[in-house]
Amino acid sequence: MAIKTKDPVKITQKFVDELLKLMTSQSKATVTLDKENDALIIDIDPGDETGLLIGRQGETLLSFQSIIGIAVKQLLGEWKRVMVNIADWREKQEEHLKSLAETTAQRVIETGEEQPLYNLTPAQRRTIHMELANNEEVTTESMGEGNDRYLVIKLK
């Protein structure tokens, strides 16, 4: 892939367009630069391929993001933060996690029993920790190791 520019947005756009083409995807991508966070934001309109590109619990999306991040590093000669969003999945996921945090916190307050939350990625656990950080009645704690790590919400 011959690139004759130093613009990270154009370089990334060209790479993502080529990658989608090689995948025989009809999706359209838009790359922008978030100057505040020094990150390349890749919004993908997946059309009919939403599930295919997001994958189970966002696994394909995260893999796609990793591949793009590595390729951009090779093309630019430096690491750039890359964030891929497909069909606003990240926003929907965050809203779901915040709702889960509040619902579970309410259950803990009502029952007095701690509630474990399993099968969360580190980023998902962090979202719940942050959502409940200012709650005066409950606290959160990550327990376990490696793939067996989980989050517990309990009374303060």
Write up what this structure looks like.
- With 156 residues, this protein is of the alpha+beta class.
- It folds into two domains: 8-87, K homology (KH) domain (GMP Synthetase, Chain A, domain 3); 92-155, Ribosomal Protein S8, Chain: A, domain 1 (2-Layer Sandwich).
- 46% of the residues lie in helices and 22% in strands.
- The chain contains five helices and six strands, in the order H-E-E-H-H-E-H-E-H-E-E.
- It has helices spanning 8-22, 50-54, 59-76, 89-111, 122-132; strands at residues 28-34, 39-45, 81-86, 115-117, 138-143, 150-155.
- It has a three-stranded mixed beta sheet with strand order 1-2-3.
- Helix 1 crosses helix 3 and helix 4 crosses helix 5 (122-132).
- The longest helix has 23 residues, at 89-111.
- It is elongated and about 60 Å long.
- Overall geometry comes to elongated
Number of helices: 5
CATH topology of the largest domain: GMP Synthetase, Chain A, domain 3
Structural class: alpha+beta
Give a quick account of the main beta sheet: strands, pairing sense, barrel closure. 3 strands, mixed
CATH architecture of the largest domain: 2-Layer Sandwich
Low-confidence parts: none
Mean pLDDT reading = 92
Per CATH, the superfamily of the largest domain is K homology (KH) domain
Number of domains: 2
Radius of gyration (CA) equals 19 Å
Beginning-to-end CA distance, first to last residue:
56 Å
In spatial order, strands of the major sheet run 1-2-3
Strand % is 15-25%
Order of helix and strand elements from N to C terminus: HEEHHEHEHEE
- Structure summary, number of beta strands: 6
